[in-house]
Amino acid sequence: MTDKTSAGPLAGIRILDLTQYVLGPFATQTLGDLGADIVKIEEPGGDRQRKGTGKTAPAPDMSALFVEINRNKRSVVLDLKTPEGQSDLRALVKTADVFIHNMRPASVDRLGFGYEAVKAIRPDIVYVVAMGFGSDGPYAGLQAFDDLIQGASGACDLLPYYDGDEALRPLPSIVADKTCGLYAAIATQAALLHRARTGEGQYVEVPMLETFTGFILAEHLHGQSFVPARGKFGHPTTITPHRRPVETRDGHIVIMPASQEAAQRFLELGGFKDPYNSPRYLEAESGKARVAVYYAMLAEAARTRTTAEWLAICAEASIPAMRANRLDEVFDDPHFKATGFFETRELPGGAGGYRAMKPGLKFSATPIGIRRDPPRLGQDTEEVLAGIR
Asked: Of the residues 323, 344, 368, which one is the last residue of a structural domain?
């Protein structure tokens, strides 16, 4: 399905996308959502992320993860190991504003599409490389995947701070890839703005380790932010084990009182009269014990009402609160339903339906949306190459 009614602020920008897996495709989907024409260049076997895990994929080339990070793109199959494929890509470079890949430098140079070679074809090209490690460090050129970057950045040491289990573990998300994909999209737009002002293209490097470490440690350097250090790693309010939803009569909510007064209001609404002067609180043996008592009272208070009742009461009392959905509850969340965030659409080539998550951004003058559903392998090859032959 193709919808051309939502042009987006990047309409008219063509991006040659030679990325695969997660980081690059997430970056180019973001740019495609914003209106850019994303021409996804795939090898004959396709983006390796196309292959599904288990039996979830409705077609061999349409894995669940591929479907969710490859909308608003056109798929063109080129065998870059052949003279014909290289010739076609050189012709496409002449029509492009951005060339983005996540190949290692030696690999892309062997194919003849390093920065200098591409710049010789299109002098004002914005050439973006998503790589594991900065080119000026000893890890330069090494392979990188999400787990490796989470490990090297220190992210695998965050859950031990939270739950006391000293085993290093990655956060349960492909968070390094997706975070760096957003950095790649930001960097691409910044370079395009520079080109619009000066006419000058440039080489842009997006190293995963450096960008993700800066992202994940922004709060967690904490006392180590200063020299000499003034405390430990770990932002206290984010690593406390008390940071979790609480049960209501029929579900869960997250309560974030902005002050002691707001917390007291919530506790009193939940049946605790003057909670901070109660024997239970005052008789706690330490400050840490009082914190534990507070959170225990919070949990007990929450169970006195339903989620809907608490949300209404907290809104009236100006206490920040929100329902906490289990994963199988998000589809029925009233806000998602009202905004149409989850949309059922049809995959091309008769592969069946899929659940799309609509772009969250809104632009009053240049609205964005899903113009193209995730492409089958090579479905746009003829259309795109017809314009250069």
From this structure: 323
